[in-house]
Amino acid sequence: MGIVEEAHNVKILGSDEQTVVLAHGFGTDQSVWKHLVPHLVDEYKVILFDNMGAGTTNPDYFDFERYSSLEGYAYDVIAILEEFGVSSCIYVGHSVSAMIGVIASIARPDLFTKLVTISASPRYLNDSEYYGGFEQEDLNQLFEAVKSNYRAWCSGFAPLVVGGDMDSVAIQEFSRTLFNMRPDIALSVLQIIFLSDLRHLLPHVSVPCHIIQSMKDLAVPVVVSEYLHQNIGAQSIVEVMSTEGHLPQLSSPDVVIPVLLRHIHHDISV
């Protein structure tokens, strides 16, 4: 087992020639794709992995300097593809991993046939001509809450982000993976995500993008998906689903899985 494979808990399922890479967002790990994977393995080779810093990874591998920007994660994705000899893939990225895929596709467009993004945002902070959903004061309070009592913050954050019934399995699942993160790593990752501004990169994207979004998402307003659509340099398409929450693949799989499969199977019609 190579260091990349071990560090990211890489799993390869299925055996078809076409590869689908599933990349999870903040506070989760590869288990967030459990509803989707069974529908893919008969037709595709599926690569699952954990982002560095996820609770399932060894915290000793987390290099605060390397992961002081999202580029470090993008290089990890490229390293995984190279390690397993993947010449091209369909990349499905949730939340921050959607933007990590954007960065990786700009660096190595040859490795990606298309990007499928779920709950993606290039910037969370509002500015004069852009609505990302958050003011700086909101983020300051968020970071302070994480610092002061991580477990208490997790308990409040999980239901807000997932949405729906407070006792749902999806909230319990997200709470579990969120609790598993080391608090100082979680804070660092949150700060990088919420303070990033990747809008300038969007015109450089040359890989077709399928942008999927919940109608109601505490972290990403619907207008952000339209912003991505208008500013991405490549061909793109938006689908807003009648779902609630930032992790719809976990909380509303009956709605989301057919949508994801359609975008994975079919390219954008010209």
Automatic annotation (TrEMBL):
**Annotated ranges, domain AB hydrolase-1:** 19-252
Listed A to Z, the keywords are: Hydrolase
Q: Which InterPro entries match?
A: AB_hydrolase_1 (IPR000073), AB_hydrolase_fold (IPR029058)
Q: Tell me the GO molecular function terms.
A: hydrolase activity
Q: Is Hydrolase set as a keyword in this record? A: yes
SUPFAM superfamilies of this UniProt entry?
alpha/beta-Hydrolases (SSF53474)
Q: Which PANTHER family match?
A: ESTERASE-RELATED
The family assignment reads: Belongs to the AB hydrolase superfamily.
**Protein name (Swiss-Prot/TrEMBL):** AB hydrolase-1 domain-containing protein
